[in-house]
Amino acid sequence: MFKILIPILLLFTYYTSNAQEIAKERVTTYSFNINKLKTQDQVTAIESSVKLLDNVTNCNLDWLNYKMTVKVYEGGTKGYFSMEKLKAILLENKAALKSFTKESK
After folding, report:
1. How many CA atoms lie within 13 A of 12 on its CB side?
2. Which region is the signal sequence (predicted)?
3. Phi-psi region of 76 (alpha: psi -120 to 50; beta: other; left: phi over 0)
4. Termini Cα distance of the chain
5. How much is the pLDDT for 14?
6. 69-79: pLDDT as tens digits
7. What does the H/E/C string look like for the chain?
8. CB atoms < 10 A from the CB of 87, how many?
9. How far apart (Å, rounded) are the C-alpha atoms in residues 66 and 62?
10. pTM here?
11. Whether the Cβ atoms of residue 52 and residue 59 lie closer than 8 Å to each other
């Protein structure tokens, strides 16, 4: 009897320990404070590049206040917003990320 229960318990333990919870899909708004914005060309290039990132639905860069707002669909099968790609876009356009906040709904 125990010879049968042990493999069953081991399989049950294995499957329950490897189960991963999938995050719910949500809309996340990121607010970025940016430094080193000097030209309208920088602003246009950054906005258009960020809009091309996966699951980004909106991007607005306020040049005068050095603030960029990005709305993203995240979670579930959508994945997550890539901060690495955003940083690469900013570096490519000679801008710098100062700080950011994140709000999910």
Report:
1. 6
2. 1-19
3. left
4. 51
5. 67
6. 999 999 888 88
7. CHHHHHHHHHHHHHHHHHCCCCCCCEEEEEEEEEECCCCHHHHHHHHHHHHCCCCEEEEEEECCCCEEEEEEEECCCCCCCCHHHHHHHHHHCCCEEEEEEEEEC
8. 13
9. 6
10. 0.75
11. no
Count how many Cα atoms sit within 13 Å of the Cα of residue 93 in the half-sphere of its side chain: 25
Tell me the per-residue pLDDT of 16-43, one tens digit each, with 9 for 90 and over: 655 566 778 899 999 999 999 999 999 9
Please report the domains of the chain, with CATH numbers, ordered by start residue: 20-104 (3.30.70.100)
Note the residue count of the chain.
Answer: 105
